[in-house]
Amino acid sequence: MTSLDCGQTPKMRPMQRNRSALVASLDIGTSKIACMIARLRPSAPNDALRGRTHAVELIGYSQIQSRGMKAGAVTDLAQCEQAVRQAVSLAEQMAKVRVESVLLPVSAGRLQGQLIEAASHIQGGAVTPSDISRVTSTGMHHATASGRTVLHALPAGYSLDGVKGIRDPRGMVARRFGVDMNVVTTEATVAKNLMLAVERCHLTVEAMAASPYVAGLSVLTDDEVDLGAAVVEMGAGTTTIAVYSAGRFIYASGFAIGGHHVTMDLARGLGACIADAERIKTLYGTVLTGGSDVRELMTVPAAGDSDCDAPQVVSRATIANIVRQRVEEIFEMVRDRLADSPFAAEPRARVVLSGGASQLTGVPELASRVLGRPVRIGRPLGFGRLPNEAKSASFSVPTGLLVYPQYAHLEHVEPRRTRQVRTGTDGYFGKVGRWLREGF
Q1: Fold matches, 112-186 and 259-326
Q2: How far, in Å, CA of 186 to CA of 148, rounded?
Q3: Band of the pLDDT at 431, cuts 50, 70, 90?
Q4: What is the pLDDT of residues 225-278, one digit of tens each?
Q5: Locate the SHS2 domain: which residues (predicted)?
Q6: Which of 91, 125, 215, 301 could form a disulfide with 35 if both were Cys (CB 3.0 to 4.6 A apart)?
Q7: Confidence (pLDDT) at 435
Q8: What pLDDT does 427 receive?
Q9: Where are the domains of the chain?
């Protein structure tokens, strides 16, 4: 049986600002698996993207159809393993390197972020790094319910004797020290099975991260992070949300409805097979209807094995109505979650959409109407040598994972156990792994 270290998914060591590194992201989604291999090289400060210390140069890339996945979770371990092997191998061939470990996003398991406040008396008078770690660890464990594991424990601010807004408390004097933190959790079983599928391929999972968080690292501008923004990552099997405010990631949520549900609605509503419904969604999927759409007719092959079944004739308006009803439902669920989050108190905050399902025609306009906020489509920012297909919103997560190592220093990491925990494969959950490979 697999085990997660200290109730927290694997976390990586912070990157050194003056060292290069080779990184690999592996996005195991419901509809596609994308693997990206990149070199991270130290770069001069970027006025547009302040948090980035390294330039990301893509050297290997693959995208294949996903297998053995449903709603962002593993449903067939053997099929998922085969697909992961294929995706990683194709990216390795292009990059001409061998990958030893990967960064992995999580979109399933009912992602949940909550702001936790933890405080403790200080023994020595001045706040030490061990005080920060101790209080943060207490808050993290307090936020972790049974059956769930921590993806992120991110301090959002500190307090000294009740005075909030302290950015760096180290060395400052107080009797009581507190921390406000965003703790993001997922179902432990979902994380374990994703790790198991990867480790069966003789790869180490160096770190796991919430999909909407890393999507935000890819698509948000500094102004959006500072003034407030919600990233809505619209995948095939899940829709996940990350809220940023005052330069920090402060909330996460998610639910298991996505673009695949639009496909299934079309298949049922048009009497078509799933493959034809997916093709119709890709070519004609829109949430907008005009007067001519009622008169514009198209032929849809009937579902079934018999050649005798007469094809259906449907209007473009019928297709648009089916698509719009499901997409409206998704945004209504997003609206309810944002209303219960700190985003509700940010009147200037905007919504940025990412993920493949966000690319349906008219989605930003519909989202803006339902959510009552300005909405734009997010695309990867500040990347060199991205292939054209990877410049779209559907690659926000795998590109964001390549940026994520530069933000690893912000996270609280539980001390790793010395005991190694076998997973039933050649991998170990307890080991640090050799993710940074320098001197190439």
Answers
A1: no
A2: 5
A3: very low
A4: 999 999 999 999 999 999 999 899 999 999 999 999 999 999 999 999 999 999
A5: 23-219
A6: 91
A7: 37
A8: 38
A9: 112-186, 259-326
pLDDT score of 6 = 59
* CATH H-level, domain 259-326: superfamily: ATPase, nucleotide binding domain (3.30.420.40)
Q: Specify the range with the lowest mean pLDDT, choosing from 35-39, 124-128, 174-178, 405-409.
A: 124-128
Q: What is the DSSP letter of 422?
A: B
C-alpha to C-alpha distance for 357 and 261, rounded to whole angstroms? 10
The answer to whether 437 and 12 are in contact (CB under 8 A) is no
Pairwise CA distance, residues 102 & 82, whole Å: 16
* The token pair that represents 110 in the structure block: 């009912």
Interatomic CA distance for residues 300 and 388, integer angstroms? 30
What pLDDT is recorded for position 5? 56
Q: Is the pLDDT of residue 434 over 60?
A: no
**Distance between start and end Cα atoms, the chain:** 36
Q: Pick from 50, 53, 51: which is nearest to 40 by CA?
A: 53
Domain 112-186 class in CATH: alpha beta
Q: Which long-range contacts (CB under 8 A, 24 or more apart) does 436-440 make?
A: 436/13, 436/15, 436/19, 436/21, 436/22, 437/21, 437/22, 437/100, 438/19, 438/20, 438/21, 440/20, 440/22, 440/39, 440/97
Spatial contact of 398 and 414, defined as CB atoms under 8 Å apart:
no
Q: Tell me the β-bridge partners of 153.
A: 183
3-state class percentages of the chain: helix first, strand second, coil last, to nearest 5: 35, 30, 35
Tell me 378's DSSP state.
Answer: -
Q: Residue 296 has what pLDDT?
A: 82
Measured distance CA(157)–CA(117) in Å, rounded: 10
Percent pLDDT > 70 in the chain is 90
**pTM (predicted TM-score):** 0.89
pLDDT at position 152: 96
Indicate left, alpha or beta for 355 from its phi (over 0: left) and psi (-120 to 50: alpha): left
pLDDT of residue 285: 87
Look at strands 375-377 and 101-106 and give their pairing.
unpaired
- Give DSSP secondary structure letters for 285-339: -BS---HHHHH-EEEEPPSSS-TTSPPEEEEHHHHHHHHHHHHHHHHHHHHHHHH
